[in-house]
Amino acid sequence: PATSSAAQPTGLAVCPLNDIDEGGIGSTYLEDGTRIAIYRVRGEEVFATDDKCTHGASSLCDEGTLEGHVIECGLHLGSFDVRTGKPVSTPCTKAVRTYAAQVRNGTIWIATEPSGESS
Ligand code: FES
Question: Which of 18, 37, 49, 69 has its CA 20 to 30 A from that of 86?
C-alpha cells in the first residue's frame, strides 16, 4: 500500500511513550550533548524543550514540575509554557528552546533542531 505522503521519519527516537507517565517528564540527549527534557502532558500529547532553565543552571527534567502545559523550574520557581518555550512566570524572562515532538507507533520522536528561535 502506498502510504507515503507521510515523510520518512526523521529526528531522534526517544523512548516508548509509556516510559513516561501522563504529567511526567523524561529526557534524552542530542548528538552534540545537549540535554532535552521531554514532557508527556496527556495521552499522545508530548513536547520537548532544552533541559536547562534559561534563568540559571537548573535541570527542568530533574528538578522541574509539570503542571498542565507549564513546566516550573525547581530552583527559583520560574516557569515556561512547554508548547512555545515562552516564559510564564518570573524570574524566567528568556524563552527556552523547543523541539517538535510527536508519537509514532508508540514511540516518542523529537526533531534534532530547535523549532525556530523565539526571543
Ligand atoms: Fe530556573 Fe532560576 S534556574 S528559575
Answer: 18
